[in-house]
Write a structure and sequence with these properties.
The chain has about 450 residues and is an alpha/beta fold. It has 2 domains: about 200 residues, D-Maltodextrin-Binding Protein, domain 2 (3-Layer(aba) Sandwich), CATH 3.40.190; about 220 residues, 3-Layer(aba) Sandwich (D-Maltodextrin-Binding Protein, domain 2). It contains 19 helices and 13 strands. Strand 1, helix 3 and strand 2 form a beta-alpha-beta unit. Helix 2 crosses helix 13, helix 3 runs antiparallel to helix 14 and helix 9 packs across helix 10. The chain is globular.
Length: about 450
């Protein structure tokens, strides 16, 4: 379970003391608030070498680590899979609380980052030089790592600007036009299911990440965060816009009652009974690996808009690499972060299927002009890179979003099985989030 605010403050204080003690008599620049590290500082640390422990479940990062150690043989990186998302976060919190076994570097998804930031468990990377990297990343991921007056607490590892993935074969068969607006999408849902009762426009049994991303694109900003003062309001215009519109698909039974990432889901994507996905830009590799039978059938289009031509998108997923405050090797750790997120490691991860967060790669001709055979030779990165530029600003996650997402199915999720509407479910989710926040010592409005 997420740590309480009291535990967070105690942990932060303990780690700060540990970090200060570790820095005494050390030449590890940046760990004591010194001037930002120069390239010469990083080069010297890489030449001197040492060992780093990195926690991540990201498979493409293995190639990056392998290449990094080949280039810098004096550095040994121990890449540990401590569990996927919430499992890793629990293990990380436990290690921090215990004061032992804390990795130097960890992968943390954007939605979970505020929880560790508020607990003062992470290094503010501005003191290491990260402040000057703002232009290196697309706005959505950069905002997500806490850029701004309060610090930079991670470097974006990847990103998930949203797009419409659709089965062209199914659309062509039923003469369905690729929807540019959500109204057109809802009409396509009805037309498809009427033509083939076994086919659905998409699946959805309730997913916190998808719901918040859709609200994000619709203009909703249900969360406000100012330190330990937070607000939760799912009655804002954007939240109500999404809930009211998506309710139509639920009421008319136009959503496949299939849970994402299940065997049934993969079969549906392969046989055409699930015709679209509105999802993050990391999806292509999952389709290519998990739905090989549908090669050549899928295409990518811009995310449908609430107003035609609005050009608004949102992020769905994505992760950062952070340096823990407990690490005694911050200079070496930052050198690794730089390599992995803005250096040669970016291309190695792209080659392994990662969608980048770096403006250099997103805007490169080689990246945008790449034809992907699985998608019928379409240059899908052009669509996805444009979506990255269109991510709406101003989104915030709760400092306890990990907990909030864990109770989504007990609140909003019930709207998918009857008995309450999506709007009622969002109100229930809001109430649960407010109650939990107050229990943890937050001032919640």
């Amino acid at each position: 379970m997420p740590i309480t605010r009291r535990q967070a403050l105690l942990t932060g204080a303990a780690l700060a003391m540990s970090s200060t003690a570790g820095a005494c008599g050390s030449s590890d620049a940046g760990s004591s608030g010194a001037e930002p590290l120069s390239d010469a500082d990083l080069g010297a640390a890489l030449k001197a070498g040492g060992s780093l422990t990195v926690w991540s479940w990201n498979e493409p990062l293995r190639k990056t680590v392998k290449d990094f150690m080949a280039k810098y043989p004096e550095v040994k990186v121990d890449l540990v899979n401590a569990g996927t998302n919430t499992d890793e976060y629990t293990a990380l919190q436990n290690a921090i609380k215990a004061g032992k076994g804390v990795p130097d570097v960890a992968m943390i998804e954007y939605y979970a980052l505020p929880q560790f930031t508020l607990a003062k468990s992470l290094t503010d990377l501005r003191e290491l030089g990260a402040g000057k990297l703002k232009s290196a990343f697309s706005p959505g991921p950069w905002n997500a790592v806490g850029a701004g007056a309060d610090g930079v607490y991670g470097l974006p590892l990847d990103s998930g600007p949203m797009a419409l993935f659709y089965n062209k074969e199914v659309f062509d068969k039923h003469k369905i036009k690729v929807p540019e607006t959500w109204e057109e999408y809802f009409a396509a849902a009805a037309k498809l299911h009427a033509a083939d009762p076994k086919a659905y426009i998409t699946n959805d049994t309730g997913d916190a990440g998808f719901t918040t991303s859709m609200i994000w694109q619709a203009g909703g900003r249900p969360y406000s965060v100012d330190g330990t003062k937070v607000g939760v309001d799912f009655a804002d215009a954007g939240s109500e816009k999404f809930a009211g519109a998506w309710q139509r698909l639920i009421d008319d039974k136009l959503l496949a009652p299939v849970t994402s990432w299940s065997d049934e889901w993969y079969r549906g994507l392969g046989d055409g009974s699930i015709a679209t996905l509105v999802i993050g830009a990391w999806m292509p590799s999952s389709l290519q690996l998990g739905v090989k039978s549908a090669a050549g059938k899928w295409r990518v289009a811009p995310m449908p808009q609430w107003e035609k031509g609005a050009g608004k998108s949102a992020e769905n997923g994505g992760s950062s690499l952070v340096i823990t405050e407990a690490s005694a090797k911050k200079t070496l750790a930052y050198a690794f972060l730089r390599y992995a997120t803005v250096g040669a490691g970016v291309q190695s991860r792209i080659d392994e299927g990662t969608f980048p967060a770096t403006t250099e790669h997103l805007g490169s001709r080689a990246f945008q002009d790449k034809k992907v055979a699985y998608f019928g030779g379409q240059r899908i990165n052009r669509v996805l890179a444009e979506s990255a530029e269109q991510v709406a600003s101003g989104w915030s996650y709760l400092p306890y979003q990990v907990y909030a997402n864990s109770v989504f199915n007990d609140t909003v999720g019930k709207a998918y099985v009857g008995g309450r509407s999506l709007q009622e479910g969002l109100k229930s989710w809001q109430d649960a989030s407010v109650e939990y926040g107050k229990e943890q010592g937050f001032t919640v409005q």
